[in-house]
Structure formats: structure tokens, C-alpha cells
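Reopening this one. Same input as before:
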Amino acid sequence: MLFITLFTVALGFGVILPVLPFYTERLALGEGASPDSVTFHIGFLTSAFPFFQMFFAPLWGRWSDKLGRRPLIVAGLLGYVVMQFLIGISTSLWMLYLARIIGGIFTSAIIPVGYALVTDLTSKENRALGFALAGTSYNIGVVAGPFIGGLLSQTDLHLYLEFGHFLINDYSVPFFFLAIVGLALLPIAIKWLKGNGAIAEKKPAIARPSKWQQVARDLFPFLLLSFIYQLALTLFEAVFSIYSKNELQYDAVTIGYGFMVCALVMGLLQPIVVSRRVKKIIPGHNQVALGYGIFGISILLLITAEQLSFVLLLIGLLAAGGAFIAPNITALISLKGGQEAGEALGIQKSTDSLGQVIGPIVGSWLLTVNNSLPYLLTGIVVIVVSLFLFSSKKFVTVYGSS
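Same output, byte for byte:
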């Protein structure tokens, strides 16, 4: 049920990401915005979602340690449904911003709480594999999203219903479909998760101060690594959408191919790289360092890519680097969090969201300075992180002790 929920949430991400530049441009130009401001609106709309995740994810994670996982996952699904419905009827930028804000607040419960549920259901030895499978479920949703969105948006239903500030037309169909899927999942999640006993029982209240600061301090080096990765990844995603539209003249479908390749490679590789056989060859600490290296080199080479086949190849390599990084870092943070795993994963989601906020804004701003600058600076920073990890004996010791 958890994997299905993650898949469904990722569908929404996959549907909106490749069409966001076109959707934003249509609404912004309709309100008289300048072409330059459209680029910034795309960056801010991309960042609005993780900005609110940044504040609410730690709260959801902490509450899940006390209240159990199921009610918060259900709340996240409800927010997801509202977000998709609002996007489907949006006729102005403020409505699109509102939808993204609501989605950011409520869906921020699903990933940290869902990952905390993975912690409840796995042993220490299988923790990374559990997170890898959860990541695969999410990434498959990202892969399917552009396909489903493109297919449903091309339906010839001749929908056009305007009432006040709201509009329903053929472009609303993918988002209404996602809202219906989310609604259908709600009773199943309530019954299945409760009946299966797959969530932590509600714990008796204990009068103690919050361990927020202590957990955050103990996890700081690993949170920093996670932050850098998410900043680099979301900067790439935002820049790729804008750069491909403006410079390479790609349409929404072609841009969607790039995201599909990224998600597919990352999703398929994650369970493989954290398997016992692969870890005997490449230990976890080397996987993290190698992942940053592959990611950094790939994003640097994207500066020179013009042919679609070469672009997709480099995106696949970049995603392979991410497959080495994500499950290992998340598993390490979960293990370090101990009994406060939900809170630790919530803090991780918060720091990841901070990177997701900064990445699109910085990337879109750097694009206005020079087209190559976002990829150049990101690639250099990530490669430096890789070299540091390869040479850090302390990182090897800390990772091995977990």
C-alpha cells in the first residue's frame, strides 16, 4: 500500500514537471507578464512546493512517531487530491501557486512518514533495500506521469466549462484523473494499513523535550550531503525544462522523455546497487562517493550536448549517480535516528526541500546570466564533494559503524 501511495504521488510530479513551463507561460502571458518574468515564475512555482515541505516535513515526521503512520499518510493523500483538483481548474497564476502550496504542505507527510514506515518494517540489514524499493516505486510513477499526462491531455472530449475564476477544459483531464485516483486510494489505505497492523501503535505521551536540535546536530554531515544532492538534482530538473524549451526547441513530450529516462534509470538501479552482492564489490561509503562523481561529470558534459540521444545518455548516467546516493544516505540517516527515525527522516525531508527550493531559483537566475553557468557550477561543486568523500577516512568509519 505504501509503494502504491508513493507511486500515485509521483504520478502527479511526473505529469506537472514537463508541462509546467508551458502552463506557466500561458497563464503569465495572459496576465501581461514579461517573457523574463515567466522564467522566474517557473522557478518560483517549482520552488513553492518544496518550500512548504521544508517547514512541514519535520512536523509530520515527529507527529508520526507519536500518532502512528496511517493517519498522516491519509492526510497527505487528501492534500494531494485537493492540489490536483485546483491545478485542473486554475485560470491564473495565484491559483497555480495556491495549488502548489497546498500540495507542498500535505504531501510532505507522505515521503518522510512513508519512509518511517519502511523503517518500522525492515531490519537494519535490509533498510537500504527497503528505501531503494520505495524509491523505485516513486520513480516509476515519475516515468509513467509524462506518458499519462500526455495521453489524457490529448483527449478530444471538447470540455469547456467556465464559471467565475474557474475553467474546466481538456487540459484539466490529467489532473482530475489524478484526483480521482487519490480519492480511490483513501478508503483502501485506511482499511489496509489499519487491518494489516503495518503502522506503529500510538505511543503513550512522555513528558520530555523535543530532540529536534539533538537529532539535527548528530545528523548534520549526512543532512548536508542529502541537501547538496537534492539542490543539484532539482537545479538540473528546473534548468533542463527551461533550457530545453528555449535553446534546444524541445516540446513538452520531448522534455518528458528526459525526465522519464532519469526516473526509470534511477528507479531500476536503486534496488540493484544496494543489494548484498553489489555492496560486496562496492561498499556503501564508496557508492555514495562514486554517485556524486558520476552525477557531477554527467551534468558537466550536458553543457556540450545537442543531439537528443546524447542528452538522454547523459541524463541516464546522472540518474545512475543518484541511484548510488539516495538510498544509502536515507538508510544512514534512518539508522542514526534510532527510535526517532520518523523525526530524523522528517528533518532530512526538510533539508532536502530547502535544496529543492534553492535549486530552481538559483538555476533559473543563472540561466539569465549564461546558459552554461548552472550546469558548470553544479558539476564542479558535486565533483568536489565526491573527491572529499573518497579521501575522507572519517566518512568511511562513520558509515561502517552504521
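So the earlier flakiness isn't reproducible anymore. For the record, Residues 195-209 have pLDDT under 50 and may be disordered.
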